[in-house]
Write a structure and sequence with these properties.
- The protein is α/β, with parallel strands linked by helices.
- It is 44% helix and 21% strand.
- The strands form 2 sheets. Strands 7, 8, 9, 10, 11, 12, 13 and 14 form an 8-stranded mixed sheet that branches. Strands 2-3-1-4-5-6 form a 6-stranded mixed sheet, sandwiched between helices.
- Bound molecules: P-hydroxybenzoic acid (PHB).
Length: 387
């Protein structure tokens, strides 16, 4: 009897070992939830490219596991966000989700990730809540918070001597948060925001608002638009002749990945962002060369954020040898890592948002040229995060 028990135990442990081995070999299911249509389509594509470039550079494996992709086009539509993210979680049973661009969609994703304890890496959307009240051990961001990108510009515009500004953006989480952060930075520097203008996302009928700006006569304008909307806004602003009298500023999304299409209308615009086209560091040069070679396209901030989402995942997975169930060890490894980004090395805050240098950039030709570091190692205040 005793012998039979021992045999059974031996057999069971042998089976377990085989099962464990097989599990270590299983592909890592990565859900990419990004916009591939609509005004942010180019941003989604750049993130997808960047992420896949990093994976390719690692020989197609992260943490020893091959990657299998599951892709959803979220259309930057918050109304479809919960259904879309649940396709990845419940139908495809992905191990990790990378996404997205739009703050409203990202908040629905963060809720679903929290509720199901699915790993989520946000490669763009700046929604302050994601690394604020919704912060969690299984949620990371490789991009920025909306506060970070626009607080810095408020400070810069005040330092440049502007006193009376108007802000203009889309009416949704990212627009609201960037306008508020800009106001905070600008007023702290002694400026005053005369008006906060907006229009529904993703509308591009700017004419009435441009007329309002001309009538209000501010000494500067702060604008957040991105992708196709940014192209149209910058061109319309110039076509109305406003760029001759009222300098236009914004977070760098206004001119990143858009300069080909904006052409002359964008020349001379100053923006703040955690990336620029002329960093000339060996790390960034190597990244840019590899990206151009792979995609025959110039990289932009979105490509960098996608690439760095790959790095964050890789750092965590290596620490747990591919076993994503070890959430605490995964998070601890990422929290103490220095991430070797093309933008310059950065760390993640306790709330899992990048602590990073914000560059002041100026559009010259087809480039967002770095002028200086506007704020060094800027950390999001992570208001409301209890972690
Ligand atoms: C956002 O919705 O958070 C967002 C979208 C596009 C950007 C930046 C932020 O370029």
């Amino acid at each position: 009897m005793k012998r039979r028990n021992t045999l059974a135990a031996l057999l069971a442990s042998a089976l377990l070992a085989v099962a464990g081995g097989a599990q270590a070999q299983a592909k890592l299911k990565v859900g990419l939830m990004l916009p591939f249509t609509g005004t942010f389509a180019a941003l989604g594509t750049a993130i997808d490219n960047g992420f896949k470039l990093y994976v390719k550079e690692q020989g197609g494996k992260l943490g020893g596991r091959e990657i299998e992709y599951f892709v959803v086009d979220d259309e930057s539509d918050p109304a479809k966000a919960t259904d879309n993210v649940n396709k990845l979680i419940n139908r495809d049973k992905v191990d990790v989700i990378v996404g997205t661009v739009h703050s409203g969609v990202a908040m629905a994703m963060a809720k679903a990730a929290r509720d199901s304890n699915t790993m989520l890496i946000v490669p763009n959307a700046g929604a302050d809540a994601v690394t604020g009240p919704m912060c969690a051990q299984n949620i990371f961001r490789s991009s920025f918070s909306n506060w970070q990108s626009s607080y810095a510009m408020g400070q810069v515009m005040a330092k440049r001597g502007h006193k009376r500004a108007v802000s203009i953006t889309w009416k949704y989480a990212a627009g609201d948060e960037m306008a508020a952060a800009f106001k905070e930075g600008f007023e702290k520097g002694g400026g005053q925001v005369l008006k906060q203008l907006n229009l529904p996302f993703p509308n591009v009928e700017f004419q009435a608002l441009l007329t309002d700006i001309a009538a209000t006569k501010p000494d500067s304008v702060f604008a957040f638009f991105a992708g196709g909307g940014a192209v149209k806004f910058v061109k319309d602003y110039a076509a109305a002749g406003l760029n001759k009298t009222i300098p236009l500023y914004g977070p760098g999304f206004l001119t990143d990945g858009t300069l080909e299409a904006q052409g002359d209308a964008a020349q001379g615009i100053y923006t703040t962002l955690h990336y620029a086209d002329s960093l000339n560091t060996p790390r960034d040069d190597a990244f840019r060369l590899a990206y151009v070679k792979a995609y025959k396209l110039q990289p932009d901030v979105y490509a960098v954020q996608g690439y760095d989402a790959g790095q964050v995942l890789s750092i965590g997975l290596n620490a747990v040898k591919g076993d994503l169930s070890k959430r605490a060890e995964f998070a601890a490894a990422v929290e103490k890592a220095k991430i070797d980004s093309p933008r310059g090395a950065f760390t993640l805050s306790k709330a899992h948002n990048p602590v990073q240098d914000i560059y002041l950039r100026k559009v010259e030709g087809k480039q967002n040229k770095a002028v200086e570091v506007a704020i060094k190692a800027l950390a999001d205040p992570a208001r409301g995060c209890k972690m």
